[in-house]
Design brief:
The protein has 254 residues and is an alpha/beta fold. It is 33% helix and 24% strand. A 6-stranded parallel sheet has the order 6-5-4-7-8-9, with helices on both faces. Helix 1 crosses helix 2.
Length: 254
């Protein structure tokens, strides 16, 4: 759905709203606005779906990461429950969710094998701290994964589907697990001895507070592939459809 996340300055608050004041900078994930969501100059959202801007993040960056940031941190912490020293394959690590999940996983002390496509994608995930990288289209996933974790990988965070994802799952140790957010297609195939976890990002006051702590602790880098003014929203969608986006596409309202 379009316009599910954005950032801006509080213009007004409801009579019963606590924790937010007019003039504060906020960002929000609100998925069910029937009128275009954040493709607008003014947007009304429930207070529990908004968070204060974390330190070190600009408004355009914050507008790009409400949905992806929550999806990334909740995949690492809540779906997979990863701990320091464990091993993880992030499949699709150069995208909007993956580029953040990679940084949050490293913050938690997890060793990460990141898949990406193209030299620019591989360069990005290396810069973001991946311990090992593999080309998701043409690379030797099995060989790279075995060298990365000879006894098998603990978990896979699946942000893209298909045959390459299945090869990533092949690299799991017995009892390993794979998590993927709603919308990944085709979904990973079930197999014996592997826990398959489907999840969705959940906004909330505590969720935004945890996300902010992680963003500030890791000094998050937010890859933004391109910015367009709102009047060129159609061109922004065409850029999305063209694929191979490192990070996110941002619309500037003014």
């Amino acid at each position: 759905m379009l316009g599910t996340d954005g950032a801006g300055i509080v213009a007004a608050v409801g009579a019963k709203v606590q924790g937010f004041k007019v003039g504060e900078q906020v960002y929000s994930y609100s998925w069910d606005n029937p009128h275009g969501g954040f493709y607008a100059q003014y947007v009304a959202v429930p207070a529990e779906r908004a968070g204060h801007l974390p330190r070190g993040i600009s408004l355009p960056e914050a507008g790009a990461i409400a949905t992806t940031g929550l999806t990334a941190i909740q995949g690492i912490d809540d779906a997979l429950h990863l701990k320091a020293g464990q091993t993880l394959i992030i499949h699709g690590a150069s995208g909007g969710v993956g580029s953040l999940a990679l940084q949050f996983a490293k913050l938690r002390g997890v060793r990460v094998l990141a898949t990406a496509s193209g030299e620019d994608g591989l360069a990005l995930v290396k810069r973001l701290g991946a311990d090992a990288v593999a080309d998701g289209r043409h690379g030797d996933i099995a060989g790279t994964a075995h060298q990365f974790a000879p006894a098998g990988v603990d978990a896979v965070l699946a942000l893209a589907g298909g045959d390459t994802l299945e090869r990533c799952i092949d690299a799991l140790r017995p009892g390993g697990q794979v998590a993927f957010p709603y919308g990944v297609e085709p979904e990973p195939k079930g197999r014996a001895g592997v826990a398959v976890i489907r999840y969705n990002a959940i906004p909330g006051t505590q969720e935004f507070e945890r996300l902010n702590r992680a963003i500030e602790a890791v000094k998050l880098e937010v890859p933004i592939a391109a910015e367009f003014p709102l009047a060129q929203a159609a061109k922004a969608q065409e850029r999305v459809e063209a694929g191979h986006i490192l990070g996110k596409i941002v619309l500037r309202i003014r």
